[in-house]
Amino acid sequence: MLTKEQIAKRIAQEVENGQYINLGIGIPTLVANYIPAHLEVVLQSENGLLGVGPFPKETEVDPDLINAGKQTITMLPDSAIFDSAQSFAMIRGGHVHLTILGAMEVSEKGDIANWKIPGKMVKGMGGAMDLVASAKNIIVAMQHCSKDGQSKLLPTCSLPLTGIRCVKKIVTDLAVLEIAPNGGFILKERAPQVSVAEIKSKTAGKLIVLGEVPEMQFN
Amino acid sequence: MIDKTVKSAEDAVADIQDGVTLMMGGFGLSGIPENCIAALLKKQIRNLTIVSNNAGVDDFGIGLFLKQGMVKKMISSYVGENEEFERQLLQGELEVELIPQGTLAERIRAGGAGIPAFFTPAGVGTEVAEGKEIREFNGKLYLLEHALHADFALVKAWKGDTAGNLIFKGTARNFNPMMAAAGKITIAEVEELVPVGSLDPNLIHTPGIYIQRIFQGDRYEKRIEQRTVSV
Fold this sequence. Notes:
The complex is a heterodimer of chains A (219) and B (231). Chain A has 219 residues and is α/β, with parallel strands linked by helices. Chain A has five helices and 13 strands. In chain B, α3 (62-67) links the parallel β2 (48-51) and β3 (71-76). Chain B is of the alpha/beta class. Chain B contains six helices and eleven strands. The interface between A and B is large, with 52 and 57 residues.
């Protein structure tokens, strides 16, 4: 089973040179730590910044510079600032190549639920619905099962949806999976020491196994 | 030259009454109109409808309005950092309309730009789409969303001149420029108010045409929600 850091590390292998990327809160934020140094990418924060830099030193903290998680950050030499309408124009317009976000549930058709649990306090969807409706490539980072052991990869989502038929790839603590064009989770890779049988038993939706499934490789 | 200066925050908000719709700039606590908030707290008005991406925290920003029972309805994308908000919502004292953040930004932009409605893909297939017109363009489904307007927009900029031209700083810009255009009366508070001619016209983010009143705020706390530092 992978740690959260290892999930982030595996997702970082999906990043390509020259991409503009939006990282959600949680495990997705950790992906920034593992993007190979030889790749030039630009991180977008939907509150109005391209070129998100590292957290500031104590002496550099600026309340006028935060990310979408309201954390203090810094800018980089290629950074650009813009307003919220412009920010979502570049998201809806398909200019952001890759969106990485967390989820509570993903269906075998690529539907995602990540914003609301009936009966619990609803905080809001923030920018998630805009992001999943428009990004060219959407990768979900999440645990394969919930804390009480229920599979989060389902035939259909039971929670209120954030978007439909949008997820392309899922990286969990057990596996890397792709959504098949006609539905189903194609098992692409296994976490080290995790068997296909275990993944199958913990995937409630249709799991598609094509031949030998390799273990994930970490450098 | 037109001078839009008012003396104080109190003067700027003097005619804001019970029951109005207010747009308030800011993302989290960054770029919020702190001095207008303080002046409105003293007025004890009620039944406000507030359009703001977030709802502040318990003891700062819009959270202070909630504590005084001034708010009837919030129109926001994310309201998660506020216990009093949760209490009022669960007690049925407060209405909330949650809108995808990009849709919220564009509805405000449309309001100021004379666009009555537009189609967006955000929310298709979700409960956000309930009751809305859905139309297919080039094989993809979109929702019809309508423009938002406000009786007053309260925005905060870094620098402004007496004609209302504004320059923002960092990510404190966020929703402020669109709200400036969408308010029937827009009040701008700035950290530094300068005479006309002091700002480079090439660098103005929000032209003064959208601003009816401007003043320099007495002080800015600029509270930070998540102070994260590297060593």
